[in-house]
Amino acid sequence: MAVPRQRILDLVKLQCRVFNTTYNPERLRLGSRILHQRLKGPSVASYYPPRIGAISQLRSLYPEHEILDEEEEDWLEHLNVAKSRGKAPPKKKRTAAESKKFNKRK
């Protein structure tokens, strides 16, 4: 005597509800096994040393060493040349009295 398929499906549905598993009578590939696994990202990331993106970060990590940034040196030299020629950006106004907006000409 064979058990009807619907009765077996009802039993599997109840079993899934009791054991908190996914009810999947068609046996589709849902990927739930992979989604329930522990994440690998943090353990893989901890294997490698931290990334240093800029020379300023390198300076903060190793303050006892003198680390030169050639691009920054070139930029500072460019600014000094521009200041000597009078072509540098103007100083930032800190008060209302210094600002041109409040010094109206009559």
TrEMBL record:
Disordered: region residues: 82-106
Localization, UniProt: Mitochondrion
GO CC annotation, single: ribosome
Pfam families per record: MRP-S33 (PF08293)
Range of residues in the leader sequence: none
Keyword Ribonucleoprotein (UniProt): yes
Main subcellular localisation: mitochondrion
Keyword list, A-Z: Mitochondrion, Ribonucleoprotein, Ribosomal protein
Bilayer-spanning residue ranges: none
Domain of life: Eukaryota
Composition skew (Basic and acidic residues), residue ranges: 95-106
Basic residues: compositionally biased ranges: 84-94
Similarity remark: Belongs to the mitochondrion-specific ribosomal protein mS33 family.
Name of this chain's protein: Small ribosomal subunit protein mS33
Organism for this UniProt entry: Dothidotthia symphoricarpi CBS 119687
